[in-house]
Write a structure and sequence with these properties.
The protein has 193 residues and is mostly helical. The protein has 6 helices and 4 strands. The strands form 2 sheets. Strands 1-2 form a two-stranded antiparallel ribbon. Strands 3-4 form a two-stranded antiparallel sheet. Helix 1 runs antiparallel to helix 5, helix 3 runs antiparallel to helix 4 and helix 4 packs parallel to helix 6. The chain is elongated, with a radius of gyration of 18 Å.
Length: 193
């Protein structure tokens, strides 16, 4: 259970923060950068959801689950699996969460026309917000892959699969929203030459 009764602790005033293992690390470290970017992705999804519950409760429920999953992913990244014995069972992203994302993608994509061009971010405000969330999610994925390539900085396969699949979901979700309104904004190669 999480209890937040005091927001500031002053323990990070020296530029460090604690991982879930208790280890103190620099706030600009690769692991903190990875889960911090996941937090950014979560915030952009929250912004995209504004007003969506009334217009598309099914998509809003999917996004709500994803926001919760992103906290799971942040917790997963905050406790690196280095084989150490911990006093608690750390939270890990699971294959079932990846599978659910794939199912949601298939459900939303089933009514969409095949693309004949790349899509520009835009259209409905919620769709533009989902495109922004997609780009932040891709940045988070790059940070996670970078972290996983470092010695002694494990990242689970399920965590990387989840964030990869999430960017696909956000793309399809933006198209789903645009289908109900303004329509996709398509790229016209060389249009302004």
């Amino acid at each position: 259970m999480v209890v937040l009764n005091k927001i500031y602790t002053r323990t990070g005033d020296d530029g460090t923060t604690a991982l879930g293992t208790g280890e103190r690390v620099r706030k600009d470290g690769a692991r903190v950068e990875a889960y911090g970017t996941i937090d950014e992705a979560n915030a952009t999804i929250g912004l995209a959801r504004v007003g969506l519950a009334d217009r598309d409760p099914r998509l809003d429920a999917m996004l709500s689950r994803i926001q919760n999953d992103l906290f799971d992913l942040g917790a997963d990244l905050c406790v690196p699996d280095r084989g150490e014995k911990l006093e608690y069972e750390p939270l890990r992203v699971t294959a079932a969460q990846v599978d659910r994302l794939e199912s949601d993608i298939d459900e939303l994509n089933s009514d969409l026309a095949p693309l004949r061009s790349f899509v520009l971010p835009g259209g409905e405000p919620a769709a533009a917000g989902l495109h922004l969330a997609r780009t932040v999610c891709r940045r988070a994925e790059r940070r996670m892959v970078e972290l996983a390539a470092m010695d002694g900085e494990p990242v689970s396969d399920s965590a990387i699969k989840y964030v990869n699949r999430l960017s696909d979901f956000l793309f399809v979700a933006s198209r789903h929203v645009n289908r109900q309104g303004a329509g996709d904004v398509l790229w016209v190669p060389g249009q302004n030459r």
